[in-house]
Design a protein that fits this description.
This protein has 11 helices and 13 strands. The chain has helices at residues 13-24, 67-70, 118-124, 139-152, 168-177, 192-205, 222-226, 234-245, 300-319, 326-332, 342-356; strands spanning 4-9, 41-42, 45-46, 50-57, 91-93, 129-132, 155-158, 180-183, 209-219, 257-264, 271-282, 286-297, 323-324.
Length: 360
Protein backbone atom coordinates (compact mmCIF):
# COMPACT_ATOMS: atom_id res chain seq x y z
CA UNK A 1 0.00 0.00 0.00
CA UNK A 2 1.11 3.56 -0.61
CA UNK A 3 1.23 6.48 1.78
CA UNK A 4 -1.62 8.84 2.60
CA UNK A 5 -0.30 12.37 2.14
CA UNK A 6 -1.92 14.69 4.68
CA UNK A 7 -1.90 18.48 5.08
CA UNK A 8 -2.94 20.23 8.30
CA UNK A 9 -4.62 23.62 8.61
CA UNK A 10 -3.96 24.95 12.12
CA UNK A 11 -0.98 23.57 14.05
CA UNK A 12 -2.54 23.66 17.52
CA UNK A 13 -3.05 21.06 20.24
CA UNK A 14 -5.17 18.76 18.07
CA UNK A 15 -2.51 18.72 15.37
CA UNK A 16 0.09 18.01 18.05
CA UNK A 17 -1.76 14.95 19.34
CA UNK A 18 -2.38 13.68 15.81
CA UNK A 19 1.26 13.96 14.74
CA UNK A 20 2.45 12.44 18.02
CA UNK A 21 -0.04 9.59 17.68
CA UNK A 22 1.08 8.59 14.19
CA UNK A 23 4.69 8.47 15.44
CA UNK A 24 3.76 6.68 18.70
CA UNK A 25 1.90 3.84 16.97
CA UNK A 26 4.00 3.51 13.82
CA UNK A 27 5.19 0.04 14.78
CA UNK A 28 1.93 -1.23 16.26
CA UNK A 29 1.14 -4.86 15.48
CA UNK A 30 -2.01 -5.37 13.44
CA UNK A 31 -3.29 -7.67 16.19
CA UNK A 32 -2.62 -5.06 18.91
CA UNK A 33 -5.41 -3.18 20.66
CA UNK A 34 -4.75 0.53 20.16
CA UNK A 35 -7.00 2.75 22.30
CA UNK A 36 -9.10 5.11 20.21
CA UNK A 37 -8.74 3.34 16.87
CA UNK A 38 -11.24 1.12 15.07
CA UNK A 39 -8.40 -0.92 13.53
CA UNK A 40 -4.59 -0.76 13.39
CA UNK A 41 -4.95 -1.76 9.75
CA UNK A 42 -8.03 -0.03 8.40
CA UNK A 43 -8.99 -1.20 4.93
CA UNK A 44 -5.37 -1.90 4.02
CA UNK A 45 -3.84 1.22 5.56
CA UNK A 46 -1.70 1.07 8.71
CA UNK A 47 -1.32 4.07 11.04
CA UNK A 48 2.24 4.58 9.77
CA UNK A 49 0.92 5.04 6.22
CA UNK A 50 -0.21 8.54 7.22
CA UNK A 51 2.43 10.90 5.88
CA UNK A 52 2.36 14.59 6.80
CA UNK A 53 3.44 16.66 3.82
CA UNK A 54 2.21 20.22 4.51
CA UNK A 55 1.03 22.42 7.37
CA UNK A 56 -0.39 25.94 7.62
CA UNK A 57 -0.67 28.37 10.52
CA UNK A 58 -0.53 32.13 11.12
CA UNK A 59 1.38 32.21 14.44
CA UNK A 60 4.79 33.83 13.95
CA UNK A 61 6.20 31.39 16.54
CA UNK A 62 5.20 28.41 14.38
CA UNK A 63 5.49 29.61 10.78
CA UNK A 64 8.87 28.62 9.33
CA UNK A 65 9.47 25.86 11.87
CA UNK A 66 9.54 22.15 11.21
CA UNK A 67 6.16 20.60 12.01
CA UNK A 68 7.81 18.44 14.69
CA UNK A 69 8.94 21.59 16.53
CA UNK A 70 5.82 23.66 15.91
CA UNK A 71 3.50 21.11 17.58
CA UNK A 72 5.26 21.72 20.92
CA UNK A 73 5.43 25.51 20.56
CA UNK A 74 3.47 27.71 22.99
CA UNK A 75 0.53 28.32 23.28
CA UNK A 76 0.16 24.58 22.56
CA UNK A 77 -0.15 22.91 25.95
CA UNK A 78 -1.42 19.38 25.42
CA UNK A 79 0.00 16.18 26.86
CA UNK A 80 3.34 15.22 25.32
CA UNK A 81 3.36 11.44 25.01
CA UNK A 82 5.88 11.04 22.19
CA UNK A 83 9.04 12.66 20.83
CA UNK A 84 8.57 13.39 17.14
CA UNK A 85 11.71 13.54 14.97
CA UNK A 86 12.04 16.26 12.35
CA UNK A 87 9.56 15.75 9.54
CA UNK A 88 11.06 17.94 6.84
CA UNK A 89 7.69 19.71 6.66
CA UNK A 90 7.93 23.47 7.17
CA UNK A 91 4.86 25.26 8.53
CA UNK A 92 3.66 27.74 5.90
CA UNK A 93 1.96 31.07 6.49
CA UNK A 94 -1.77 30.46 6.18
CA UNK A 95 -4.75 32.75 5.60
CA UNK A 96 -6.08 34.73 8.59
CA UNK A 97 -9.55 36.15 7.80
CA UNK A 98 -11.59 35.44 10.97
CA UNK A 99 -9.24 32.71 12.21
CA UNK A 100 -7.79 35.00 14.87
CA UNK A 101 -10.44 36.21 17.31
CA UNK A 102 -10.43 38.94 19.93
CA UNK A 103 -8.91 36.82 22.70
CA UNK A 104 -6.45 34.76 20.67
CA UNK A 105 -5.06 37.97 19.19
CA UNK A 106 -3.84 38.85 22.70
CA UNK A 107 -1.46 35.88 22.80
CA UNK A 108 -0.80 35.13 19.11
CA UNK A 109 1.06 37.53 16.85
CA UNK A 110 0.51 36.81 13.15
CA UNK A 111 3.52 36.04 11.01
CA UNK A 112 4.25 38.64 8.34
CA UNK A 113 2.37 38.21 5.04
CA UNK A 114 2.08 37.10 2.33
CA UNK A 115 -0.13 34.06 2.65
CA UNK A 116 1.43 31.01 1.04
CA UNK A 117 0.07 29.73 -2.26
CA UNK A 118 -2.05 26.96 -0.74
CA UNK A 119 -3.16 25.35 -4.01
CA UNK A 120 0.38 25.18 -5.36
CA UNK A 121 1.73 23.65 -2.15
CA UNK A 122 -1.04 21.03 -1.98
CA UNK A 123 -0.41 20.05 -5.57
CA UNK A 124 3.39 20.01 -5.27
CA UNK A 125 3.23 17.83 -2.14
CA UNK A 126 0.66 15.54 -3.78
CA UNK A 127 -1.61 15.98 -0.79
CA UNK A 128 -4.46 13.46 -0.61
CA UNK A 129 -6.34 14.68 2.46
CA UNK A 130 -6.57 18.11 4.13
CA UNK A 131 -7.59 18.40 7.80
CA UNK A 132 -9.20 21.55 9.14
CA UNK A 133 -8.16 22.39 12.71
CA UNK A 134 -8.89 26.13 12.65
CA UNK A 135 -10.32 27.78 15.81
CA UNK A 136 -14.06 27.70 16.49
CA UNK A 137 -15.82 30.53 14.67
CA UNK A 138 -13.47 30.60 11.66
CA UNK A 139 -16.33 30.72 9.15
CA UNK A 140 -14.71 32.85 6.42
CA UNK A 141 -11.30 31.24 6.79
CA UNK A 142 -12.70 27.72 6.58
CA UNK A 143 -14.73 28.46 3.45
CA UNK A 144 -11.71 30.11 1.84
CA UNK A 145 -9.58 27.04 2.57
CA UNK A 146 -12.28 24.73 1.21
CA UNK A 147 -12.07 26.57 -2.12
CA UNK A 148 -8.30 25.95 -2.17
CA UNK A 149 -8.82 22.28 -1.34
CA UNK A 150 -11.30 21.88 -4.20
CA UNK A 151 -8.92 23.56 -6.64
CA UNK A 152 -6.07 21.32 -5.52
CA UNK A 153 -8.18 18.14 -5.82
CA UNK A 154 -7.94 16.89 -2.23
CA UNK A 155 -10.30 15.12 0.14
CA UNK A 156 -11.35 17.18 3.16
CA UNK A 157 -11.94 16.38 6.84
CA UNK A 158 -13.62 19.23 8.70
CA UNK A 159 -12.91 18.86 12.41
CA UNK A 160 -14.49 22.15 13.50
CA UNK A 161 -18.10 23.38 13.83
CA UNK A 162 -18.29 25.37 10.63
CA UNK A 163 -20.98 23.64 8.60
CA UNK A 164 -19.55 22.30 5.34
CA UNK A 165 -20.34 18.58 5.11
CA UNK A 166 -23.91 18.97 6.33
CA UNK A 167 -24.65 21.75 3.81
CA UNK A 168 -26.13 20.60 0.50
CA UNK A 169 -24.35 23.24 -1.59
CA UNK A 170 -20.91 22.24 -0.30
CA UNK A 171 -21.73 18.55 -0.73
CA UNK A 172 -22.57 19.26 -4.36
CA UNK A 173 -19.31 21.17 -4.86
CA UNK A 174 -17.31 18.14 -3.68
CA UNK A 175 -19.41 15.83 -5.84
CA UNK A 176 -18.77 18.03 -8.89
CA UNK A 177 -15.02 17.82 -8.23
CA UNK A 178 -15.17 14.06 -7.58
CA UNK A 179 -13.80 14.41 -4.06
CA UNK A 180 -14.80 12.90 -0.67
CA UNK A 181 -15.77 14.92 2.39
CA UNK A 182 -16.08 14.02 6.09
CA UNK A 183 -17.47 16.49 8.64
CA UNK A 184 -18.47 18.46 10.64
CA UNK A 185 -16.99 18.92 14.15
CA UNK A 186 -14.95 15.97 15.37
CA UNK A 187 -16.52 13.68 17.97
CA UNK A 188 -13.90 12.61 20.51
CA UNK A 189 -13.13 9.05 21.55
CA UNK A 190 -14.90 9.41 24.92
CA UNK A 191 -15.75 13.09 25.26
CA UNK A 192 -18.60 15.21 26.52
CA UNK A 193 -20.70 14.79 23.37
CA UNK A 194 -20.44 11.02 22.98
CA UNK A 195 -21.15 10.46 26.70
CA UNK A 196 -24.13 12.83 26.67
CA UNK A 197 -25.46 11.19 23.46
CA UNK A 198 -25.16 7.67 24.87
CA UNK A 199 -26.89 8.61 28.12
CA UNK A 200 -29.67 10.37 26.19
CA UNK A 201 -30.10 7.26 24.05
CA UNK A 202 -30.14 5.12 27.20
CA UNK A 203 -32.93 7.25 28.70
CA UNK A 204 -34.94 6.89 25.51
CA UNK A 205 -34.42 3.14 25.15
CA UNK A 206 -35.19 2.45 28.84
CA UNK A 207 -38.34 4.54 28.75
CA UNK A 208 -37.18 7.53 30.81
CA UNK A 209 -38.58 10.80 29.51
CA UNK A 210 -35.77 13.36 29.50
CA UNK A 211 -37.21 16.72 30.51
CA UNK A 212 -34.19 18.95 31.10
CA UNK A 213 -30.44 18.65 30.67
CA UNK A 214 -27.26 20.67 30.62
CA UNK A 215 -23.65 20.07 29.63
CA UNK A 216 -21.06 22.54 30.92
CA UNK A 217 -17.45 22.39 29.77
CA UNK A 218 -14.34 24.29 30.78
CA UNK A 219 -10.62 23.90 30.20
CA UNK A 220 -7.30 25.67 29.78
CA UNK A 221 -6.40 25.38 26.10
CA UNK A 222 -6.65 28.04 23.40
CA UNK A 223 -9.95 26.54 22.23
CA UNK A 224 -11.61 27.54 25.50
CA UNK A 225 -9.83 30.89 25.52
CA UNK A 226 -11.08 31.57 21.98
CA UNK A 227 -14.62 30.59 23.00
CA UNK A 228 -14.75 33.32 25.62
CA UNK A 229 -15.76 35.36 22.58
CA UNK A 230 -19.38 34.27 22.64
CA UNK A 231 -20.06 35.61 19.14
CA UNK A 232 -17.91 32.76 17.78
CA UNK A 233 -20.00 30.08 19.49
CA UNK A 234 -23.21 29.97 17.48
CA UNK A 235 -22.28 27.01 15.27
CA UNK A 236 -20.53 25.22 18.16
CA UNK A 237 -23.65 25.33 20.33
CA UNK A 238 -25.82 24.20 17.43
CA UNK A 239 -23.45 21.33 16.70
CA UNK A 240 -23.19 20.05 20.27
CA UNK A 241 -26.89 20.53 21.04
CA UNK A 242 -28.05 18.77 17.89
CA UNK A 243 -25.67 15.87 18.57
CA UNK A 244 -27.54 15.24 21.84
CA UNK A 245 -31.14 16.00 20.83
CA UNK A 246 -30.82 13.84 17.69
CA UNK A 247 -30.95 10.82 20.00
CA UNK A 248 -34.52 11.66 21.11
CA UNK A 249 -37.75 11.01 19.21
CA UNK A 250 -39.34 14.21 20.55
CA UNK A 251 -38.20 17.82 20.89
CA UNK A 252 -36.97 19.50 24.04
CA UNK A 253 -37.94 23.13 24.53
CA UNK A 254 -34.92 25.42 23.94
CA UNK A 255 -34.97 26.56 27.57
CA UNK A 256 -34.75 22.93 28.77
CA UNK A 257 -31.38 22.13 27.20
CA UNK A 258 -28.07 23.93 27.49
CA UNK A 259 -24.91 22.56 25.91
CA UNK A 260 -21.74 24.59 25.64
CA UNK A 261 -18.49 25.86 27.11
CA UNK A 262 -18.67 27.92 30.27
CA UNK A 263 -15.20 29.18 31.08
CA UNK A 264 -11.43 29.20 30.61
CA UNK A 265 -9.08 28.10 33.42
CA UNK A 266 -5.47 28.52 32.24
CA UNK A 267 -3.79 26.15 34.70
CA UNK A 268 -5.87 23.23 33.41
CA UNK A 269 -3.79 23.33 30.20
CA UNK A 270 -5.36 20.97 27.63
CA UNK A 271 -7.44 19.21 30.26
CA UNK A 272 -11.19 19.54 29.87
CA UNK A 273 -13.79 19.15 32.61
CA UNK A 274 -17.37 18.31 31.68
CA UNK A 275 -20.41 18.41 33.97
CA UNK A 276 -23.65 16.81 32.75
CA UNK A 277 -27.01 16.87 34.49
CA UNK A 278 -30.11 15.07 33.20
CA UNK A 279 -33.57 15.29 34.76
CA UNK A 280 -36.31 12.89 33.70
CA UNK A 281 -39.44 10.98 34.63
CA UNK A 282 -39.76 7.22 35.10
CA UNK A 283 -42.67 4.82 35.66
CA UNK A 284 -45.39 6.38 37.76
CA UNK A 285 -44.20 9.87 36.81
CA UNK A 286 -41.46 9.50 39.42
CA UNK A 287 -38.40 11.80 38.99
CA UNK A 288 -34.95 10.48 38.06
CA UNK A 289 -31.89 12.72 38.08
CA UNK A 290 -28.37 11.96 36.87
CA UNK A 291 -25.14 13.91 37.34
CA UNK A 292 -21.78 13.08 35.79
CA UNK A 293 -18.31 14.63 35.77
CA UNK A 294 -15.78 13.77 33.08
CA UNK A 295 -12.12 14.82 32.93
CA UNK A 296 -10.05 14.28 29.78
CA UNK A 297 -7.01 15.60 27.97
CA UNK A 298 -8.98 17.21 25.18
CA UNK A 299 -6.75 16.88 22.12
CA UNK A 300 -5.48 13.28 22.44
CA UNK A 301 -9.14 12.36 22.95
CA UNK A 302 -9.88 13.15 19.29
CA UNK A 303 -6.61 12.18 17.58
CA UNK A 304 -7.42 8.49 17.09
CA UNK A 305 -10.79 9.37 15.59
CA UNK A 306 -9.05 11.62 13.05
CA UNK A 307 -6.58 8.85 12.17
CA UNK A 308 -9.53 6.60 11.30
CA UNK A 309 -11.27 9.41 9.39
CA UNK A 310 -8.12 10.02 7.31
CA UNK A 311 -7.95 6.38 6.28
CA UNK A 312 -11.67 6.20 5.45
CA UNK A 313 -11.33 9.33 3.34
CA UNK A 314 -8.39 7.80 1.48
CA UNK A 315 -10.36 4.59 0.81
CA UNK A 316 -13.10 6.75 -0.69
CA UNK A 317 -10.61 8.50 -2.96
CA UNK A 318 -9.19 5.17 -4.12
CA UNK A 319 -12.68 3.95 -4.99
CA UNK A 320 -13.72 7.17 -6.70
CA UNK A 321 -16.39 7.99 -4.11
CA UNK A 322 -17.39 11.63 -3.98
CA UNK A 323 -19.30 14.02 -1.76
CA UNK A 324 -20.21 13.47 1.88
CA UNK A 325 -19.36 10.03 3.29
CA UNK A 326 -22.55 9.39 5.27
CA UNK A 327 -21.48 6.51 7.54
CA UNK A 328 -18.00 7.74 8.52
CA UNK A 329 -19.32 11.30 8.99
CA UNK A 330 -22.08 10.03 11.32
CA UNK A 331 -19.59 8.01 13.37
CA UNK A 332 -16.69 10.44 13.53
CA UNK A 333 -18.50 13.80 13.68
CA UNK A 334 -20.97 15.68 15.88
CA UNK A 335 -22.82 17.33 12.96
CA UNK A 336 -22.89 14.94 9.98
CA UNK A 337 -25.33 15.31 7.08
CA UNK A 338 -27.54 12.62 8.67
CA UNK A 339 -27.61 11.74 12.37
CA UNK A 340 -27.70 8.09 13.44
CA UNK A 341 -27.26 6.39 16.79
CA UNK A 342 -23.60 5.67 17.50
CA UNK A 343 -24.17 1.91 17.21
CA UNK A 344 -25.78 2.35 13.80
CA UNK A 345 -23.04 4.74 12.66
CA UNK A 346 -20.28 2.37 13.74
CA UNK A 347 -21.93 -0.51 11.86
CA UNK A 348 -22.25 1.67 8.75
CA UNK A 349 -18.59 2.66 8.99
CA UNK A 350 -17.44 -0.96 9.37
CA UNK A 351 -19.50 -1.83 6.30
CA UNK A 352 -17.95 1.12 4.44
CA UNK A 353 -14.46 -0.15 5.31
CA UNK A 354 -15.27 -3.73 4.27
CA UNK A 355 -16.79 -2.61 0.97
CA UNK A 356 -13.93 -0.28 0.06
CA UNK A 357 -10.84 -1.98 1.50
CA UNK A 358 -7.79 -2.28 -0.67
CA UNK A 359 -6.84 -5.63 -2.13
CA UNK A 360 -3.51 -7.20 -1.26
Amino acid sequence: MGKINVAIIGVGNCASSLVQGVQFYQNASESQFVPGLMHVNLGGYHIRDINFVAAFDIDKNKVGKDLAEAIYTWPNNTFKFCDVPKTGVTVHRGMTFDGLGKYLSKIIQPAPPPTANIVRILKETKTDIVINYLPVGSEMATKWYVEQVLQAGCGFINCIPVFICRQKDWQERFEEHGLPLIGDDIKSQVGATIVHRVLTRLFRERGVRLERTYQLNFGGNTDFYNMLERERLESKKISKTNAVTSQLDYELAPDDIHVGPSDYVPWLLDRKFCHIRMEGRTFGDVPLNLELKLEVWDSPNSAGVVIDAIRCCKLAMEKGLKGALTGPAAYFMKSPPIQYSDDEARKMTEEFIAENKQAG
